[in-house]
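protien #1 (seq + structre)
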Amino acid sequence: MEHLGWGIIVRDHRGEVIAAKAGRTDHVSDAFHAELIAAVQAVSLAEQMGVIHIDIEMDSQLLMLALNRREADTSPQAVTLDDLKYQLRTTFSRYNVLACKHECNYPAHELANLGFSCAVSGAMLWEFECPEAIAGYVSGDMPLVDQ
């Protein structure tokens, strides 16, 4: 894997889209690394937006387990993974890392396709909306939220 597009969707406590972001990254080693890059982007955007409670949903069971594990990581991505775990612990008053089925992450994958068209290390940000190309998919994947 040489380069990839990534995509993230930020929702509020009601499940409404408050931001979407897509971009491109080069020098990606494998699928785990690709998912980790998307998670780093999601956490960074949430921090910039002043979020204090975060639920991260991803379709990588392996990354979800790695982020929830307390022990230090020994994978080739250990430094990035441990930095992300530290950022989660110190930035947010509450965080959850959850895995979902691949199909549930379809809007983020469509955003990743848009991100692939960006310049290297470039990104596109939509605030209080999502790109028209994925709007229908986003409304169909609304997470279950407490009423």
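ok now protien #2
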Amino acid sequence: MEKPAPDVMEGRRRDSGRRRRDGQGDDNTAAAGEEPYVMAVDDSSVDRAVITGLLRRSKYRVTAVDSVKKALEMLGSEPNVSMIITDYSMPEMTGYDLLKKIKGSSELKQIPVVVMSSENVPTRINRCLEEGAEDFLLKPVRPSDISRISNRMLQPT
């Protein structure tokens, strides 16, 4: 019987099942049967728990962090992430700041980034999509949202 994964797996190196948008695996593609690895970034512990639970029920490994700073630190030592899902509004640095840093990095720009927010602000949504976000989800995130992004980006191998 499989043990449940811990809520936060900071500092532990994992292989990914990263897939490019064209569906071709890269050099870090996981072995058959290994779940893709998702980083969830949200300053709200409740929202982190919700998104982590939804992703795990959809068979993804998840690391949840509470700030953009921690996400960037982890990506420096843990680049094998299949997708990043981030809240837009956070203190110090926003999810939009994280998106810009990811898309501006030659090592990380292929990682799909999904931004989520409880505020339906069309200019914010458009700005994120224009900057390279794969999708923009309105909170509360639902299982159907996870299914949609999974079908588009993270089909498990």
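The first strand starts at residue 37 and ends at 41.
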